[in-house]
Design brief:
The complex is a heterodimer of chains A (394) and B (217). Chain A has 394 residues and is of the alpha+beta class. Chain A contains 14 helices and eight strands. Chain A is 44% helix and 13% strand. Chain B has 217 residues and is an all-alpha fold. Chain B has ten helices and no strands. The relative contact order of chain B is 0.12. The chains are: A alpha+beta (394), B mainly alpha (217). At the A-B interface, helix 1 and helix 10 of A face helix 7, helix 8 and helix 10 of B.
């Protein structure tokens, strides 16, 4: 070090300077550690890498493979992407991959089939812009078959659809929503003009029932994390860092949690959270963000929630609602912890505690299949990792 | 000893350059060997640039140098070797060992003098380290941010060592801190690097001004 201090009391000044620079060196070393974390977690490249390439490349792919490239951008439970496709020039077969499940969180596979319906809806929407007219047959091998749909393709004039245009802008938005109500007419515009057979979409937007459903969602989240097996199965799909995200190209990621930019950077720079910390974060977010800022809830109901065809149709309906919400500038966030607890209690054979509480908030005879919240977003949702069309095509 | 350091450093730099070219051209094809990087082309080119710095350092080892520049060139050899462990995966192992070994050999003669030279320029060393951190962050950044980070990191290292007028150094310092802090503010660490670099740079500039005044006197 250069000595620029006066010569009086040289040893004391020198010691102070040495200690000072030692402190500065420690700060630089700490900055180095954080820089390495920034490098390792790719904080400066959020939404980059091959795991997010399908969001950027899907429009360029022509023909049936392009339709599959749109299908894989659909919503799925815990972003498990439980789909596979067999593609020819004239048809697409859609299969469910039973290995990609959430275990005790979805013991009857209800959400998995709804996710398959979401993918099928995107696939159907992506055919027309590619000059293909799709004709779908659901469950051609029966409800137990792995093939959930056969889509026959014929040539047709190419045409566009506003929902198709929203496919790559649709993301689950787990962030806070603005305290602005969504007008009833705007909610009604999200639904199908004529609902699919055996399905109904109910809106819960009045303050009192909305608060009751919010409280039920928080209770369900707490019950789910208190159930160790459900907590484990929930956490199994969490990808804690960029390496895991890029390697698996699926699952729940920090980018999808609705954080502000600064919160997201801090979350990425900190060491990966444990399962219990993740559970606590989710329950707190459910109470303080998700339910506290929901403008309205949508609940898709049916008299027969165990029917595979209805589950597929419900998924297709959810995807359409989400795409319409996206096109209208609204945020949407599927919240299925209540039905996950209902199914868990049914699978375990114990007393039903959540089913009657949810039923009390719905019209008589309506049984819940899928639930979500909507609102005006404070910030945009972010894309989540995807396996490419090539990776899921047989 | 210095001729041996020059040969080892040259070998390490050439190998590192080759590793960078492999990363840029085949990185996506052989990810197990190249660290499965998200931006192999950018990282490969960055590695080639760092190999160039290391090659210049190795060539300088051939000449007789006073302790201070010798220590600086040793850092210019070891720095790229260590940084490239994060840019080209397994391919960097051999060149990293060679470049660090060359740096050690280069300062082995008169190690005490070199240590004193490093200590005398400790603020510059810290500033260079911060520039290296920026290069590291840039290696895993989106393309535009990567370019800004590469320029910033290089500018910060130059600001530490370039024998230039204070105005030029201040310009390099601002170029080395502000753009990446603006482009990557949301990642927080670029802001931290800038906040840490500025007072250290002030010390560097102050000591340089003191030296100049001393010469004038």
């Amino acid at each position: 070090m250069t000595t620029t201090e006066p010569q009086a009391e040289p040893s004391r000044v020198s010691r102070r300077r040495v200690l000072g620079w030692a402190g500065v060196t420690a700060v630089v070393a700490g900055t180095g550690l954080l820089s390495y974390r920034a490098y390792d977690t790719a904080v400066l490249d959020a939404g980059g890498g091959p795991a997010h390439a399908p969001w950027r490349e899907w429009r360029e792919l022509p023909g049936p493979r392009g339709a599959v490239a749109a299908a894989i951008l659909a919503a799925s439970p815990h972003n498990t992407q439980p789909w596979e496709f067999a593609v020819t020039d004239r048809s697409i077969d859609v299969f469910t991959d039973p290995r990609r499940h959430t275990g005790s969180v979805d013991p009857f596979g209800r959400e998995r089939y709804a996710g398959m319906g979401c993918a099928l809806e995107n696939l159907m929407l992506a055919c027309a812009p590619r000059g293909l007219a799709p004709a779908v047959t659901l469950l051609p091998d029966g409800p137990a078959g792995a093939r959930v749909a056969h889509v026959e393709l014929t040539a047709a004039p190419a045409r566009t659809d506003p929902l198709y245009a929203a496919i790559d802008r649709r993301h689950t938005n787990r962030g806070p929503y603005a305290p602005t109500p969504v007008a009833p007419a705007a909610l009604a515009a999200l639904a199908d003009p004529v609902p699919p057979d055996d399905l109904a979409l109910h809106w819960i937007s009045d303050p009192r029932p909305r608060a009751e459903l919010g409280a039920l969602l928080v209770d369900a989240a707490e019950a789910l994390v208190a159930d160790e097996q459900q907590s484990i199965d929930n956490f199994a799909w969490f990808r804690p860092d960029n390496d895991a995200e890029q390697r698996h190209r699926d699952g729940l990621v920090l980018d999808g949690q609705g954080f502000s930019p600064v919160q997201l950077a801090v979350a990425k720079l900190l060491p990966p959270s444990s399962r219990s910390a993740g559970d606590r974060f989710w329950v707190n977010a459910t109470r303080d963000v998700h339910t506290a800022t929901a403008a309205a809830y949508g609940v898709i109901t049916t008299p027969a929630p165990d029917d595979r065809r209805i589950q597929l149709d419900a998924g297709r309906l959810l995807q359409r609602v989400h795409l319409r919400a996206t096109a209208a500038g609204l945020a949407l966030h599927p919240m299925n912890q209540i039905t996950e607890r209902i199914d868990r209690e049914a699978a375990a054979g114990g007393p039903a505690t959540f089913a009657p509480r949810f039923a009390a908030l719905l019209p008589d005879g309506a049984r819940p299949l899928l639930a979500f919240r909507v609102g005006h977003p404070v910030r945009d949702g972010r894309p989540t990792p995807r396996r490419s069309a090539a990776m899921v095509t047989r | 000893m210095t001729r041996v350091a020059a040969r080892i450093g040259t070998a390490g730099a050439v190998l590192l350059g080759a590793a960078g070219l492999v990363q840029a051209t085949l990185g996506a094809v052989i990810p197990d060997w190249t660290g499965a990087k998200l931006a192999p082309v950018g990282l490969g080119l960055l590695t080639v640039g760092l190999a160039g710095v290391a090659l210049v350092a190795a060539r300088r080892f051939r000449t007789e140098l006073p302790p201070e520049p010798r220590a600086a060139w040793a850092l210019a050899s070891a720095g790229p070797g260590l940084l490239c462990l994060s840019t080209v995966g397994v391919l960097a192992w051999a060149p990293a060992v060679l470049l660090v070994a060359a740096a050690v050999l280069a300062v082995a003669d008169g190690a005490g003098d070199s240590a004193r030279a490093v200590a005398a320029h400790w603020p510059q060393v810290l500033l260079s380290a911060l520039g290296g951190f920026q290069l590291l962050m840039a290696a895993a950044a989106a393309p535009w941010t990567m370019a800004v980070g590469a320029v910033s990191g290089t500018a910060l290292v130059l600001a530490a060592w370039l024998p230039a007028r204070p105005a030029v150094r201040v310009g390099l310092l601002l170029l080395g801190t502000v753009p990446l802090a603006v482009v990557g503010w949301y990642a927080l660490v670029p802001l931290l690097v800038a906040a840490v670099a500025l007072p250290i740079a002030a010390a560097v500039l102050r000591s340089q001004a003191t030296e100049l005044l001393g010469k004038d006197a």
